[in-house]
Design a protein that fits this description.
The protein is mainly β. The chain is 0% helix and 58% strand.
Length: 73
């Protein structure tokens, strides 16, 4: 699959230490990558052949092509 056609999301942290965790595809779902964001930092993440889900811990705004979601711990 061409990675340039994959979906992107934008995550903006509203507090220190927001965790963004990439989860794998396949027989068993596993964490394969973790980022920690400080307040005000923005991360642009992409779904790929290896990443099927993204978990966010902490207060953040998540922008997708489907709309905006607020996470509140």
């Amino acid at each position: 699959m061409d990675s340039s056609s994959e979906d992107y999301i934008v995550i903006k942290a509203h507090e220190q230490g927001v965790q963004v965790i990439g989860l794998t595809r396949g027989q068993s779902t596993k964490s394969h990558h973790t980022e920690k964001l400080d307040r005000g930092e923005i991360l642009i993440a992409q779904f790929t052949d290896h990443t099927s889900a993204i978990k966010i811990r902490g207060k953040a705004t998540v922008l997708t092509k489907y709309g905006t979601v607020e996470s509140n711990d």
